[in-house]
Design brief:
Layout (H helix, E strand, L loop, with lengths): L1 H11 L8 E3 L5 E3 L7 E6 L2 E6 L3 H31 L27 H12 L1 H7 L2 E5 L6 H14 L4 E4 L1 H9 L5 H8 L4 E7 L6 H17 L3 E5 L3 H5 L4 H13 E5 L3 H19 L3
Parallel strand pairs: 5-8, 5-9, 6-7, 7-8
Antiparallel strand pairs: 1-2, 3-4
The structure holds zinc ion (ZN).
Zinc ion binds next to helix 2.
Length: 288
Amino acid sequence: MIEKIIENAIKNNPVTLDENSFTGDDGLIYCRKCGVARQCRITLGGEEMTVPCICKCEKEADEQEKVRERERDRLLAKEREINKAVYYSFPKDNEGRINKMRSWTFENDDGADPETMKIARNYIKNFDKLKKAGKGLLLWGDKGTGKTYTACCIANTLLDNYQSVLLTSFSRVVNELMGMYDGKQRYIDELCSYDLLIIDDLGVERETGFMREQVFNIIDTRYRTGLPIIVTTNLTLTEISSCPDTDKARIYSRLLEMTFPVEVNGSDRRKQAARKSYNEIRAMLTAD
Ligand SMILES: [Zn+2]
């Protein structure tokens, strides 16, 4: 039985002399690189036979492959774990798939607003400290300047580092709450337990008493957890900091207390788009 196995091993994996090996004085084939024999003699049932064996470099290569395999497994497990978390982090489309926001990362940034990106990167760099201090960001500026993109860059980096993140909007949350008979506060508590809560597009929600009440409740609950919030809004800092409506002023002043305001200035982005279209038309008109 054992003889058969060894015979097969020799047949399937014969050691042949090549440019990487030489024949030693004992007639066995040796590895030129490490000088260790790639064959050895064994005696089985009184019969001597030559069988392949592993030289030092082959052993090292095997070990390296095992390390690589373990690393691959580790990364796959990490990806699976993160993807599971990510599923709950971003809004879903009608088919229940998470939308393109997972791909809104620093790596995919078009470089149109380096100043804001620098702030976002530094926010992550100091996240442990800022999280302890409960400090978030208020990303304000015109439509299409990349506020949500910036928030997503932060979200995706934190998700990759095993932090829990939820990106949602007040409209979405209050819609959920409206459909609930009970458990509203439990829902809000859960919402406010993420390492980072991102509220996208503050200021577009409908102006109802219930909405205002719940928006304040969410902000207040988050405030009491001491965890950070990032808010994106088309409102200007003046509109937020000196709002004549007392209900809203109460919400906004709490928000200002919890965040550091950053004007996301898309002028670079717009200028770049304008330059691109100018160049395209110019190329069209000046073509031979
Ligand atoms: Zn070798």
